[in-house]
Design goal:
30% of the residues lie in helices and 22% in strands. By secondary structure, the protein is of the alpha+beta class. It has two domains: 9-90, no CATH class; 100-216, Sandwich (Jelly Rolls), CATH 2.60.120.10. The structure holds zinc ion.
Length: 218
């Protein structure tokens, strides 16, 4: 599996520090279980320390900040899904192990519900902050244009999706913040299945989007 889209440094740092809401942490753990490159980055204290320094203003840095972060890396993180080691290709299933613990081993046995024409969903139980869902988008199906009030992580599990950022296939993760507006489109013949987590409501940018937003749960 060739993965072209990875997690941001800031997202990896927040995950390592146990600071991500449960849903975002689940998506990170799923990507880590599929991506050797991001697992290697997570093990590099220098990268984590660099992300920390970028994220703090000078007056906010306590003398022992980095020590505290590095200590935290060795602590078990409460209630945050752990990254599983990658399975060998012979035994790998389509469902990443942290997600399989919730839905089982098959995307075809998920009890999908209809959201809007062309899009089905399955709510994942990931706490009250934000929204975490599996989405199944029919070929040519599109999510209405939106930006974000917070963070949105999308991990492709089957098929492919294109937006203003690029094309995403199995294993690719889209790691977006409130600076990005996009309209994802299932661009392949089989449509796509992905896991999406947000930590704040989306900001739909068309009238139609605002009208259907209550139906989407985002
Ligand atoms: Zn990666």
């Amino acid at each position: 599996m060739k993965i072209n889209h990875h997690l941001d440094d800031a997202t990896l740092f927040s995950y390592a520090a146990g600071a991500l809401p449960h849903g975002l942490a689940l998506v990170v753990a799923c990507h880590l279980s599929m991506c050797d490159a991001c697992r290697a980055r997570l093990r590099t204290p220098e990268a984590i320390g660099g992300a920390l320094l970028e994220s703090l203003t000078p007056e906010a840095i306590a003398e022992d900040s980095l020590d505290q972060v590095l200590l935290k890396l060795h602590d078990p993180v409460d209630e945050v899904p752990a990254a599983a080691p990658a399975k060998s290709s012979a035994s790998a299933t389509e469902v990443p192990q942290p997600l399989a613990e919730i839905i089982g081993d098959s995307l075809d046995e998920v009890e999908w519900k209809r959201m809007v024409p062309g899009i089905c969903y399955y709510d994942l139980p990931c706490g009250s902050q934000g929204t975490t869902k599996l989405l199944r988008v029919a070929p040519g199906g599109t999510v209405l244009p939106h930006s974000h009030r917070g963070n949105e992580l999308t991990l492709l599990l089957r098929g492919s999706l294109s937006d203003e950022i690029g094309r995403f296939q199995r294993g690719d993760v889209s790691d977006l913040d409130d600076q990005v507006e996009h309209q994802p489109l299932a661009d392949g013949r089989e449509g796509c299945i992905c896991i999406v987590a947000t930590d704040a409501p989306l900001r739909f940018t068309t009238l139609l989007g605002r009208l259907v937003q209550p139906l989407t749960g985002f």
